[in-house]
Design a protein that fits this description.
There is one protein chain. The chain is of the alpha/beta class. It has 14 helices and six strands. Strands 3-2-1-4-5-6 form a six-stranded parallel β-sheet, sandwiched between helices.
């Protein structure tokens, strides 16, 4: 795969001093808007603007199936993946509701669902294959499939950027994908496997024990480098995770603000950050997932999620719910009076 796919330049920090000055001289005590001030600074740097405005948000939901789902790593049958895609297309899922509530565009992508949808309005057919192979027995995907998924995700984002998108979030759907994300997280963070494996779709204690045992088998099979993001992605990833990683890198290349959802998206972000560390300049980590492995991801990436509502649904729902905070950050920078313009005396300290 050509390295330009994941070559990301750091944000240009030439505006940083001016942005900080603008934020600091608003009619408020220094730092009184807390994380919103950090967010405003980041958005201004990403968009290279002293008056950053985000007006064209979009969320892309990638769906893909996992061969390991049939081995019992999920509480739900694999058919739920395609059934939930139908729910997305019908407008009835949580991400549809939250996107509508917040004026966010939504695209649904078949990255590799084990189902034939046919030509459907509002569904992008980017199917690499009808699901990955069972990673407990062998690699989930070939290097060629991995590279195709990365490239297809990048292509989709470049198209949205050309249409004027300025902030992009990602979501996913795929029965078994918390298992895939757990393995990627374990390999790329070094956290203990058990600390990276949660209940996913709601496994009971016996189901959780079975999931951990199966993932342990998958790790025993893999004798490759566990710090090589591309190798780990091919071994354990899903097509939706690979497509998200490519999409995240292309979004950073296009200077879009990247809204990173929860645990599955966090696994894609680990891959993206390993391939291009500067990706993190563009990434806003939206919420703290209730999946235990998310803490390891955030620690490794040096990230602090904006909100913690105990969510663990996926679909990009955490990104959609956090979106108003980004709008608020832009709004105060652009609309709030400065001490000088309002004729208010500044602190004597």
């Amino acid at each position: 795969m050509h390295s330009s796919l994941y070559a990301v330049a750091p944000v240009d920090r030439s505006l940083e001093a001016a942005l900080r000055r603008k934020i600091d001289t608003k009619t408020k005590p220094l730092g009184a808007l807390g994380r919103l001030e950090e967010l405003a600074l980041q958005i201004g740097l990403v968009r290279a603007s002293l008056a950053p405005a985000l007006a064209r948000p979009h969320i892309v939901v990638f769906a893909g199936d996992h061969g390991a789902a049939k081995a019992g790593v999920s509480a739900y049958p694999q058919d739920v993946t395609w059934q939930m895609v139908e729910n997305f297309l019908a407008g009835g899922a949580a991400i549809n509701v939250f996107a509508r509530a917040n004026g966010i565009g939504l695209t649904v992508v078949d990255a590799g669902v084990a189902h034939d949808f046919g030509a459907r309005p509002n569904l992008v057919d980017a199917k690499i294959a009808p699901g990955t192979a069972n990673f407990i027995e062998g690699a989930a995907m070939t290097a060629a499939q991995r590279d195709a998924a990365l490239a297809r995700g990048a292509e989709l984002v470049r198209g949205l950027a050309a249409e004027g998108c300025d902030a992009i979030g990602f979501g996913e759907m795929g029965i078994g994908n918390t298992a895939a994300a757990s393995l990627i997280t374990h390999c790329l963070t070094g956290a203990a496997l058990d600390a990276c494996v949660g209940r996913g779709t709601g496994l009971d204690d016996a189901g959780l024990a079975r999931k951990r045992a199966l993932l342990g088998q998958a790790l025993e099979r893999f004798d490759g480098p566990r710090d090589d993001a591309l190798a780990v992605l091919a071994q354990f990833g899903g097509f939706e995770i690979a497509m998200m990683a490519g999409a995240m890198l292309a979004a950073a290349q296009a200077r879009l603000v990247v809204l990173v959802d929860g645990f599955i998206c966090g696994a894609a972000a680990l891959v993206a950050a390993r391939l291009a560390p500067a990706f993190l300049d563009y990434a806003v980590f939206c919420h703290a997932s209730a999946e235990p492995g998310h803490q390891a991801q955030m620690a490794t990436l040096g990230a602090k999620p904006l909100i913690d509502l105990g969510m663990r649904l996926g679909e990009g729902t955490g990104a959609a719910v956090a979106w108003p905070l980004l709008r608020a950050a832009c709004a105060f920078v652009n609309e709030m009076a400065s001490f000088e313009s309002a004729g208010v005396s500044e602190s004597l300290a």
